[in-house]
Design goal:
2 copies of one chain form a homodimer. Chain A is of the alpha/beta class. Chain A is built from 13 helices and 13 strands. In chain A, the strands form 3 sheets. Chain A has a 7-stranded mixed beta sheet, sandwiched between helices. In chain A, a hairpin with a 6-residue loop joins strand 9 and strand 10. Chain A is globular. The termini of chain A are far apart. At the A-B interface, helix 1, helix 2, helix 3, helix 4 and helix 6 of A face helix 1, helix 2, helix 3, helix 4 and helix 6 of B.
Chain lengths: ~400, ~400
C-alpha cells in the first residue's frame, strides 16, 4: 500500500461529522435544502458581524497590499499580537505582551503546533470525554496517543476521580475544552482548581510539566451569564488556544491564536518551538489579511441571542417530546441521550426524517448524539414537526 | 526536556532564512530601512494585482458572508476546484475535474498533506540540491527522511547520474521544484523525460510507485519565454503542487492547491488521504475568502517585467564586479558563487554593508549564497554601491 500505516487507520475511521455533513449536502440536492435539518457541523449561521466587513474595507483602503497580503514574522504581525495581548489582559487581568502570542490557523492549527513540539512517539495526551474527535487525530499526526478519561454522565463536568490513574511518565498534556463541544457544559472555576491540585501533585511525581491545553473557541458563547474561568489564571502550565471561527462566524478563514504565559515551565523553549512548528507544518503564518481583521474586532461580542433562541426553543420542544437532554450553558451543541442503546440506530432513524445528528461515539460518549444548533432559527422551527415524527418512533 | 527529540533538532537548525529576515528588520530599525538591502526572503515586492482587490470587493458584495467565510468541504469549494481544473486543462491539455483538485494552505500545506499521507517512519523523500531547506523539515514532521542528490554545479539541471543509487525500497517520492528555488534554473522537458525513464525502471525494481511532487509556485515566473514543462504530462505518478503566493504577491494568505490526476497509481486512496490530512493537520480547509479570490484571478499573469528588470540589472552589475553567478531563467532568486570557500564568511561580510544574503548550505549547496531579487527596483539600484564595496573586499 502507498498510504502510510498511521494514515490508513485515520482514513478508515475518518470524520463521522464531515461524512454526515457531505451526506446532508447530497440529501439537500435530492429533497430540497429546506427539507433537510442538518445539525451535523459547527458551522455558525449567525451572520458575520458588520465589523468584519468594515475592517476588511478599512485595511484594504489604508494599508499597502504587499503588507496586507505579504509575509510577516512566522508568529504573526507584531501589532496584531500586541492587540491580542492587550485584549486578553483587559478581560482576564493577565500580563501578556506580543511575545506571548502566536497567531495560528485556528485553534486546530495551534493544537497541532503544540503536539508537533512536545510529543515524541507514544507520548500521551489526555482528553476528558465527551471530547472533539479530531483531538485523537491531531495527537496521532506526530505519533502521540490520546488517552480518554471516561465521561461523568451524571454531571458532564471533568471526571477528576478517574484522572490520576491515567497519568504517567508518558503524559505530556491534558486538553480542557471549555465550554465543551459536544455537551455545551461549562467547567466551573471549582472544577479547574481541583484539576490544578491533581496536576501539581502529578507533576511532582512524574518529574516533568503536564501542560493544560485550554481549547476555548466557545468561550464567548455563554448563556445566562455563567462565568467561564480563564484557565491560565488558575493553572500555571496552561497554553490558551483560541479561534475566531465561532464568535465572528469565520470558520473557513482559519484564524486564531495561542497565548503562552512567560510563567509556564520551559517558556523560552516552548514558545520558540511553537513558532518553528507553525512554520514547518506548512502553515508558515496565520492568514495575513484575517490577522489584521481580527485585531480590529477583538471587542466584537458573539451573537449570543441568536444561538440562545435556538437553544431555548429546541431544549423546550425536545424535552417535551420525551428526549433526555444535557442542558447546555455554552457553545452551540447539545447532547441528546439516544432512546436506543446503539445511538447509530437513532442517527439512522433521524435521517429517515432528514434530521442529521452525529453519534457521540466519535466524541467518546456512546449512547448519546450531538446536535449542533448553530443553524438558522427558521430551520430550527421547521425541524420541529420532523423531530415529533422521530420522537413518535420511540415514545409515541 | 519538554520539547520532543525530533523537534529539538529542528529548532536547533531552524530556518537561516527566517533568522536573517528578522535580523534585517532589526538592522532597519537601527540604520533606517532605506539603508538595508535585504535579499533574504521570497516575499514578492511586485504590487498585488488590482484584480485581487476587485475580486475581494466583488465577492463581499455578491456572496453571503456565511458562505464567503464559512466551512465548505475540506477539499475546498466545488466551484473553485472546478475553476482550477478548467484553468489547468486549458493551459496544459489535461483533463482534470474538481475531484482532482484540493485547495491547500499554499504549496507548503499541500506538501505536508502528501508527506502526512504517504510517509511511515524512516521512509525517504529525495530532493535534488540545491533545494528549499524546508523540505527536510516537512518530511521530518512525520518521521520521514530527506535524501539529497548532490548538485550538478556545472549545469544546475537535475543531477540524474547520481539519482539511481539513491533509490531504494524506502523511497516514497521525489521533489522537483521547477523553476528552482534557489538557482532560478528551469528543468527542461528533456531532463524531465530522462527522470521519467529512471523512475519507471526504479518503480519496477522496488515494486511500488515513486511519486514526483512537482512543486511549482514559480511556474509563471519565467524570463525570455522559456518553456516550463508540465510534469504530470510527462510523468504519470506526479502530484502537482501550486501556490498563488508568488504570482499574485499573496504569500501571507496561504493559498494554493494540489492537482492529482486520476491516472496516478492508487488514485482513490491518495486523494482521499490527502483530503483527510488537510483536515487533520489543522488546516481544515484552505482559507475560504482567498479560495474564492484566486478562482477569479486564474488568468492574471505574473508581473514578469517587474522581476526581470531586477534580474537583468543585478546580473549585469554583479558579474561586471567579478561575481560568478548562475544565470536564472525563472523564479526570483539567483545563486552567487561565494568568493571565499566558506560562504558564511561571505554572508557575514555582506552584513557589514547591510546586504543580507542567505548561505546556500541550507539549500544543500555550500559555497554559494542565495539572493532573492523579489524586492523593489529602487532597492536594487540603491544596493549597487554597497555591492561594489562588498566586491572590493574580494576582487578590489
Amino acid at each position: 500500500m502507498v498510504i502510510s500505516k498511521n494514515m490508513e487507520k485515520l482514513v478508515a475511521g475518518s470524520s463521522t461529522i464531515r461524512k454526515l455533513f457531505e451526506e446532508g449536502l447530497q440529501m439537500a440536492q435530492q429533497v430540497g435544502a429546506e427539507n433537510v435539518y442538518d445539525f451535523s457541523l459547527g458551522n455558525p449561521a449567525s451572520p458575520v458581524p458588520t465589523e468584519v466587513r468594515d475592517a476588511i474595507n478599512d485595511i484594504l483602503e489604508n494599508t499597502e497590499g504587499n503588507v496586507v497580503h505579504g509575509y510577516m514574522k512566522n508568529a504573526g504581525y507584531d501589532n496584531v499580537r500586541q492587540a491580542v495581548a492587550d485584549s486578553l489582559n483587559k478581560k482576564n487581568g493577565t500580563s501578556y505582551t506580543k511575545e506571548n502570542i502566536i497567531m495560528t490557523c485556528g485553534a486546530a492549527g495551534g493544537m497541532n503546533c503544540v503536539f508537533r513540539s512536545i510529543l515524541d512517539t507514544d507520548d500521551e495526551v489526555i482528553a476528558f470525554a465527551p471530547f472533539f474527535g479530531e483531538y485523537r487525530n491531531y495527537a496521532n499526526n506526530y505519533g502521540g496517543k490520546l488517552v480518554v478519561v471516561p465521561a461523568d454522565t451524571d454531571t458532564f463536568q471533568l471526571n477528576l476521580k478517574e484522572l490520576p490513574r491515567l497519568i504517567n511518565k508518558k503524559t505530556k498534556c491534558i486538553i480542557v475544552n471549555n465550554p465543551n463541544n459536544p455537551s455545551g457544559v461549562i467547567y466551573t472555576a471549582e472544577t479547574i482548581k481541583k484539576l490544578n491540585d491533581i496536576l501539581v501533585n502529578a507533576e511532582k511525581k512524574i518529574g516533568h510539566p503536564i501542560y493544560v491545553l485550554a481549547d476555548e473557541p466557545y468561550r464567548e458563547l455563554v448563556y445566562g451569564g455563567q462565568d467561564v474561568p480563564y484557565i491560565p489564571n488558575i493553572i500555571k502550565n496552561s497554553i490558551f488556544l483560541y479561534s475566531f471561527s465561532k464568535t465572528l462566524s469565520l470558520p473557513g478563514e482559519r484564524i486564531g491564536y495561542m497565548a503562552v504565559s512567560s510563567d509556564v515551565d520551559y517558556y523560552d523553549e516552548l514558545i520558540n518551538a511553537f513558532i518553528v512548528a507553525n512554520r514547518c507544518l506548512g502553515f508558515v503564518n496565520a492568514p495575513s489579511l484575517f490577522q489584521l481583521v481580527v485585531s480590529k474586532c477583538l471587542d466584537v461580542p458573539a451573537n449570543i441571542a441568536f444561538y440562545d433562541a435556538n437553544r431555548t426553543l429546541l431544549y423546550k420542544e425536545l424535552t417535551e417530546m420525551g428526549f433526555d437532554i444535557v442542558k447546555p450553558d455554552g457553545a452551540f451543541y447539545m447532547l441528546i441521550k439516544s432512546p436506543t442503546q446503539d445511538e447509530e440506530e437513532f442517527v439512522a432513524m433521524g435521517k429517515k426524517y432528514h434530521i442529521i445528528l452525529v453519534p457521540a461515539k466519535s466524541f467518546g460518549c456512546p449512547g448519546y448524539v450531538r446536535l449542533a444548533y448553530c443553524v438558522s432559527n427558521d430551520m430550527i422551527k421547521r425541524s420541529i414537526p420532523a423531530f415529533k415524527k422521530l420522537a413518535a418512533e420511540y415514545f409515541g
